[in-house]
Amino acid sequence: MSSTTNSQALLRIGLSSSSLLAGITQLSWGWRRRTRRLWVRTGPLVSACLIHFALFALAGIFSSRIVSASGEALIKGSSDCGWYDTSIAGKVMNNTLEAHDLDTIDTVVKTGRTAITRGKEYSRACYPKIDGSQPSESLCFSTVIPSIKSSVDLSATCPFQPQACSGPAATFDTGWIDSHYHLGINAQPKDRVQIRKTTTYVPIPLEQKYGSD
């Protein structure tokens, strides 16, 4: 069997570029003394393997750069981003609005209405139901923290005088909510705030009087 036949057999196997390059190199080394001008025959195959391998390696480097870049959150400053112009509130209080201010007020009202509507939809979809079932909508994973966990105490003490409550109280505590970590508001550490809300619910007897005539 000649070196040409062996080379054709290697090509038919369907090896990868690196494996084909190794096979041709071993074949050429084994036939170097029995075949004249062997490297002239195998040189083009070796060159093609090297070029093919280099192109795929280069493509792999660029594809990894693209994948890593797609997972990064890039923030670019924009003139359309930022806080609302609160100076409009002073004009409303002082009744000094001008014609061009009406467009600003209309934008603020529409934006606020949209935010409230989306907030209601998100809270209905992404917070656990009364029966304890967990949310599964893809909308709920659009934020870093899908939902803020609250602690619930169903046997809390009555917040009023004992005779004013007809049953055990229920207390809901949000815990400390950080504007940066929980709400996703980007601000300098000195401008960040933490809030906490504790609410207590209790049934009261309707026939009881709570005020003087």
What does it look like?
This protein has 213 residues and is mainly alpha-helical. 43% of the residues lie in helices and 9% in strands. The protein has 3 domains: 3-70; 77-147, no CATH class; 148-201, no CATH class. The strands form 2 sheets. A 3-stranded antiparallel sheet has the order 1-2-5, with no helix packed on it. Strands 3-4 form a two-stranded antiparallel sheet. Helix 1 packs antiparallel against helix 2 (17-30) and helix 2 (17-30) runs antiparallel to helix 3. Keywords: Membrane, Transmembrane, Transmembrane helix.
Q: What is this structure's SSE topology?
A:
Elements: H1 3-13, H2 17-30, H3 38-70, H4 87-94, H5 101-126, E1 151-156, E2 169-173, E3 177-178, E4 194-195, E5 198-201
Antiparallel strand pairs: 1-2, 2-5, 3-4
Helix pairs in contact: 1-2, 2-3
